[in-house]
Amino acid sequence: MLPWFNSPFCPLYLAPMAGVTDSVFRRLCKEQGADVMVSEFVSADGILHRNQRTREMIYFHPVERPLGIQLFGADPERMAAAAEAVVEWGAPDFIDLNFGCPVNKVVCKHGGSALLRDCPLLEKVAGTVVRKLHPFPVTAKIRLGWDQTSINALTTAKILEDAGIQAIAIHGRTKDQGYSGDADWDQIARVASAVSVPVIGNGDLRSAIDIGCRIRETGVRGLMIGRAAMNNPWIFRQARAFLRSGVVVPDVGLEEKWNHILRHCRMAVAENQEEEFTMASMRGRLMAYSRGMRNGRQLRGELQRVTKIEQLEQIRDRHLTQSEEEALAVDTVETA
């Protein structure tokens, strides 16, 4: 069994998210209490073609361990060869197979959740990779099924278990749902009770209380946090405190949030050595961080034009001052 499942506390995974969970963000989430990291999904073909961008995506720092590299593809032999290459190059702690991505550019190549409609091929991919890497651990991520008329997570999970997959993460939506609607945790619980390998639940984990409830109610052995971490990486710290003591840790203050945002950007620039390009690529991340902040529309308009750290520092200073003035004005009115 993967050693982190021997912990008295349910391991908290950072979900793989394309364009989000790079090495810098993984390190920041690790500091906040995330237990297990999974890389952005990487193309098996990109690995075999020795694509430089792909090789950069599998890079990680030792502090990020335990970490798995997630691969997608539909050719069993090429997936196995790519997995072997990744293990030789990077020595991650496990390989994760992506059978859940709903994005059309992946699905149209018969990768990701497309394999949920082709269980014989899914079985062949998983079995071939497991045999190639044995005894190195291989895990997998799936969705409930292709659509509401073809929910087959239980069948898929049993196939993967029989193929030698050592843990299964399940996103509680179908491919057709994408990220809309509600995650179906009853289906996740059904699978968790039917297979012997650890099941990791994923979907709509927005707070420490959500996390505590899902552990109690579903029988999952781990939880995977995705979109909530994009604007609240402190969710790992909050969840860990709640699971250990039942204490609900308050949300971080505005100044701490801004300090984190600036640190994230500085780390990204230091990693890439190209400030303007890096800051432009960080704009989507800045949009996520700004969610729920005061004067959000104005703030987002400013963040969308950021090209330098200095600009971001100026925006931070203005926003903190403006927020303090507005809070003081409200206090003055309430006490008048």
Describe what you observe in this structure.
- The chain has 336 residues and is of the alpha/beta class.
- The chain folds into two domains: 243 residues, Aldolase class I (TIM Barrel); 82 residues, no CATH class.
- The chain is 51% helix and 11% strand.
- The protein has 16 helices and nine strands.
- It has an eight-stranded parallel β-barrel with strand order 1-2-4-5-6-7-8-9, surrounded by six helices.
Give a summary of the structure in a few sentences.
The chain is α/β, with parallel strands linked by helices and 336 residues long. The chain has helices at 23-31, 44-48, 52-57, 76-90, 104-107, 119-133, 153-163, 185-194, 208-218, 227-231, 235-245, 254-272, 275-281, 283-290, 296-303, 309-335; strands at residues 12-14, 36-38, 42-43, 67-72, 94-99, 138-143, 168-171, 199-202, 222-225. It has 2 domains: 3-245, TIM Barrel; 254-335, no CATH class.
